[in-house]
Hints:
Blueprint lengths: L1 H21 L17 H5 L3 H16 L5 H13 L1
Helix pairs in contact: 3-4
Amino acid sequence: MYRICQAQDQAWREKRRVRELEELPRTLRWNPGELGSGTMASAAGGGGSDAVRRLQDAKQMLDARLITDAEYEAIKAKIVSS
């Protein structure tokens, strides 16, 4: 009985996590052409503040346990590589 309840609880947690990820602010979603040419120099220029803000938002979500470490690393890699 305990295992069944535990499995259901885990399933609901996963559904909530997925829903929260779907409701992420537009600024955290990946858009390949968002920061321009994709170089670090372009990120340091006009679009740099946007990248910094997106990284800060992702870190806040990680701290609030809305996303996992792996998801945070994936978001961070996409932001840095753009």
